């Protein structure tokens, strides 16, 4: 298994992982499937300063990916990033999420960021456990701010100090 920055050739497999999460889970709060050109714009954005997208691979296979980017837009938030992490459905529970996050956190630290925020659907116990394991602490849940699969969703924030 290798972890490296995402490249254009990874996009078709990233798209499959991303759309699986849209279809099957409350990890991404939309019902609209992404397209390859949307994912290409997403990757281009994550190649600009202050952002990053990495993948975990086994040969030509993309097993998962993780990103960080701005938490909020105004310049006062510039030392804070928000992360995301997705592992291919058939490869969860094998340490890949943790490995991706460790690489992401290390890169964010090296880039001089102060805080990393994870925004997680409150019922996503796997993601909450993963972030806890990495030292993130509960920073509050906002109730009822999302709606998917005919129910209201709560958003739990978790915070990691990087310095
Ligand atoms: C959440 C996710 C990224 C975790 O990645 P993973 O590779 O399965 O996790 P790991 O194998 O690295 O496990 C890391 C830790 O989290 C725990 N964990 C992972 N999934 C879990 C689950 N479903 N329930 C309970 N604990 C879980 C593991 O037990 C491990 O902790 P431990 O070492 O104390 O046992 C992955 O399940 C996933 O992609 N889910 C769908 C998308 C998603 O929800 N992304 C996060 C959006 S905020």
Q: Could you characterize the architecture of this molecule?
A:
The protein has 163 residues and is an alpha+beta fold. It has a seven-stranded mixed sheet with strand order 1-2-3-4-5-7-6, with helices on both faces. It is 29% helix and 36% strand. It contains four helices and seven strands. Helix 1 crosses helix 2. The protein is globular and about 40 Å long. The protein has one domain: 3-Layer(aba) Sandwich (Aminopeptidase).
Helix-strand layout with pairing:
Layout: E1 2-5, H1 11-24, H2 36-45, E2 52-58, E3 61-70, E4 80-87, H3 96-110, E5 115-121, H4 125-133, E6 137-148, E7 151-161
Parallel strand pairs: 4-5
Antiparallel strand pairs: 1-2, 2-3, 3-4, 5-7, 6-7
Helix pairs in contact: 1-2
Residues 21, 25, 27, 85-87, 92-98, 118, 120, 124-127, 129-130, 133 line the site of coenzyme A (COA).
Number of distinct beta strands: 7
Distance between the termini: 28 Å
- CATH topology value: Aminopeptidase
CATH architecture: 3-Layer(aba) Sandwich
Compute the gyration radius: what is it? 15 Å
Give the ordered list of helices and strands.
EHHEEEHEHEE
| Overall residue-averaged pLDDT value | 98
As a percent range, the share of helical residues equals 25-40%
CATH level 1 name: Alpha Beta
- Name given to the CATH homologous superfamily: Gcn5-related N-acetyltransferase (GNAT)
Strand order of the largest sheet: 1-2-3-4-5-7-6
Biggest sheet features: 7 strands, mixed
The geometry reads as globular
Q: How many separate domains?
A: 1
Summing up helix and strand content along with how strands pair, one would put the structural category as alpha+beta
Query: Spans of 5+ residues with little confidence (pLDDT < 50)?
Result: none
What small molecules does the structure contain? coenzyme A
């Amino acid at each position: 298994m290798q972890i490296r920055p995402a490249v254009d050739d990874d996009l078709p497999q990233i798209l499959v992982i991303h759309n699986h999460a849209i279809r099957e889970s409350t990890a991404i709060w939309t019902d609209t499937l992404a397209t390859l050109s949307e994912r290409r714009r997403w990757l281009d954005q994550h190649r600009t300063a202050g952002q990053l997208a990495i993948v975990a691979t086994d040969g030509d296979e993309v097993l998962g990916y993780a990103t960080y980017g701005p938490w909020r837009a105004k310049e006062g938030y510039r030392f804070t990033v928000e992360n995301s992490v997705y592992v291919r459905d058939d490869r969860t529970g094998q340490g890949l999420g943790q490995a991706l996050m460790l690489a992401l956190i290390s890169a964010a630290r090296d880039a001089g960021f102060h805080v990393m925020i994870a925004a997680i659907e409150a019922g996503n116990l796997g993601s909450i456990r993963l972030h806890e394991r990495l030292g993130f602490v509960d920073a509050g849940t906002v109730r009822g701010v999302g709606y998917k699969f005919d129910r209201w969703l709560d958003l739990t924030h978790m915070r990691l100090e990087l310095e």
